[in-house]
Amino acid sequence: MRTIIFISCVFFLLSACGSSPEQQAAMTATAQTATAAAWTPTPTSTNTPTPTLTPTPTLTPTPTRTSTSTLPPTATSSPTRTQDPDRFYAPDDKFSMMLPTGWIIDEVGMEYPVLLSDVSVDNLPSIFFFTDESIFPVEFYAALVQDSMAKKVESLTTISEDFLITPGGKNYFRWEMNSSQAGKSVYSVMYFFEVGDWKLVITYARLINQGKENDALVESSIETIKFGP
């Protein structure tokens, strides 16, 4: 049986971090109240203008159009999009990214396939994906995830956290850490992206003492991410 260290724990934590309906309603109500106060109109008196009579224009006869026989335009078929075989495309076409060199795509019954190194042990190194809907901006959403994981993940130590921009101009938050999972020491990096309220969290994980050569490959792949078909 496959066992993917780290995935089940993080998946549970992230699913609990989305904004609750109560939180969203409170924030929305506050915004609506402020908007209503700012846009309350103040009545003012106005003078009714005196109408000015305008002479009726003289009608000019419209020339009769001569009909001509034309052929209907020929329908042009849309070209089929060609997918790059070295790129991973989400099944719902919401995003894509280059596969790290030598990695494979594997179905594990989650929302999206998992990307695995072809020399994985315990299915690590791996990359997996989680999506969520939240009205909170990505920096606040990431802070909620960090807070939950700090309380529940054993021996979690932050190495670095940065706000970065891909070469394509997409902002994201990067969180690098070490932790203990199923009795093993795990190195991982979480990348937080957003498109409106839609959030995408990409997690790269490997054993601390194995697979370090994949780190640069994964970073390069993350920088190629694109959203939409």
Question: What would you say this structure looks like, in words?
Answer:
- This protein has 229 residues and is α+β, with helices and mostly antiparallel strands.
- It has a domain at 103-229: Mog1/PsbP, alpha/beta/alpha sandwich (Protein Transport Mog1p, Chain A).
- It has 4 helices and 10 strands.
- It has helices at residues 7-15, 21-38, 138-152, 215-222, and strands spanning 87-89, 95-98, 103-106, 114-121, 124-133, 157-165, 171-181, 184-195, 198-207, 226-227.
- The protein has a 7-stranded antiparallel beta sheet, covered by helices on one side.
- The model is unreliable at 1-5 and 24-46 (pLDDT under 50).
Descriptive labels:
7-stranded antiparallel β-sheet; disordered N terminus; 3-stranded antiparallel β-sheet; 229 residues; Protein Transport Mog1p, Chain A; 22% helix; alpha+beta
Layout of secondary structure:
Layout (H helix, E strand, L loop, with lengths): L6 H9 L5 H18 L48 E3 L5 E4 L4 E4 L7 E8 L2 E10 L4 H15 L4 E9 L5 E11 L2 E12 L2 E10 L7 H8 L3 E2 L2
